Amino acid sequence: MSEYFSLSECDVIGFDLDHTLCRYHLKETSRLIYESFARYLVEHKGYDKELLHLTPATWDFCFKGLVVDLEEGNLIKLADDGTVLRATHGTKTLSPDDITKHYGPKREWKHFHCLNTSYTRSAKYYFYDNYFDLPGALLCARVVDMLHKRGAEITSEFWKDIVAAIDHNYNTSAFREDAGTYFPSVKRNPGCYLQPCSDAVKRWLRSMKTSGKILLLVTSSHSDYCRLVCEHILGMDFEELFDIIITNALKPGFFSLVPQQRPFRTLVDDVEDSEGLPSLEKPGWYSQGNWPHLHELLKNLTNKSEPKVVYFGDSMRSDMFPACSFAKWETVMIVEEMEGEGVPRANPTPSNSPAPSESPVEKKGKFEDQGMKSPSAVSNQWGSYFIDVQKNEGEETQRLTWCCHSIHTYSTMAVPSIEAIADLPLDFKFQRFSLDKPSTTGYYPRPPDSLLKWEQNQS
Q1: Up-side HSE of residue 313: CA atoms within 13 Å toward CB?
Q2: pLDDT grade, residue 370 (50/70/90)?
Q3: pTM for the full model?
Q4: Are residues 454 and 398 in contact, defined by beta-carbon separation less than 8 angstroms?
């Protein structure tokens, strides 16, 4: 395999939607998602109203890549081999001695092998790897704090309420029925939460279409929400940009399940046909589906037995791992945490985009002015997304995090945003991640600060 990767070599360019093609205003969206989940617990499950009140400083806890250990009631941050680097019980940081009490002298988390080889969810743990459920990590920790305050026993029962809160706000009918807090808020004021794509990104998409590439959108969002997002970020004519749109794809099952388990369905007025399609015959907009049937269509459209596909996404669990492992696609991971460590994002504010308007929530006082940390920034409590220090018997060793190791293993390359590469020619050669190359290889336009420092210390 070549050490370089170029979009010009690909026949099909695929995209996830949320936090990939669509950039969100992370602070506003995170506050809304937290409020959506917490309000459900208070109004439907009888939890204390204190859950609804947050200070800006509280958001330092919100950190992508954490695992909820439901057996211990802890949140943990893992090294590349499953060693527990940091942990909290609720929002309280556990000392190295406390971690040893929970996980033994080697600080090994016993379910690591299962998570590391499948990235699936379990009744024993939950992996927070995307911004749509990330505020749930903060909520989960605060619930544990509240149960302790009451003197209640910490069991995994509370987790069922957290899952119910997620389902209440995100289930496929919630948008249509104006249910929950999240969808009604975004529908009422999309500009507060969604960032329009720059002209450079729109030109980039059109240039790929013009050059004969097949453009593909695969999102787990339902068709009605996808339409609202795409109209806002790309324009009313967004459907012209894509040959195939697949909504409610239910990733990672889209990649891992056989066609009989997840057939494609047609849509009429955003309602899925009850009859699944036996195969995919032509381009268009579909719901659910599976990659083997999509693969057959792409073979027909490209007249190639093995069309080369690259897929852009932001989730290791839903995008990178399954697309790489099952579909054997090239994968480009959008890692917003790179921006939090000094990597510039191209064209941060599209010149034709108005500033986001104020939402009713904003009028209570802007969190930005009060010091709210962006969820993609380095956390004081959790450290860097890429590198951390393992403290053991007075010695400190720098370690790659499990999230960083996963990026190097299942991604062809990583960028902070699509805008970072939108002005480059299609035949631009990117360096790909490789086991026999330094860990800094594969990030564009450059590696995050912590990895650069780590690499310098290694040499």
Answers
A1: 30
A2: low
A3: 0.93
A4: yes
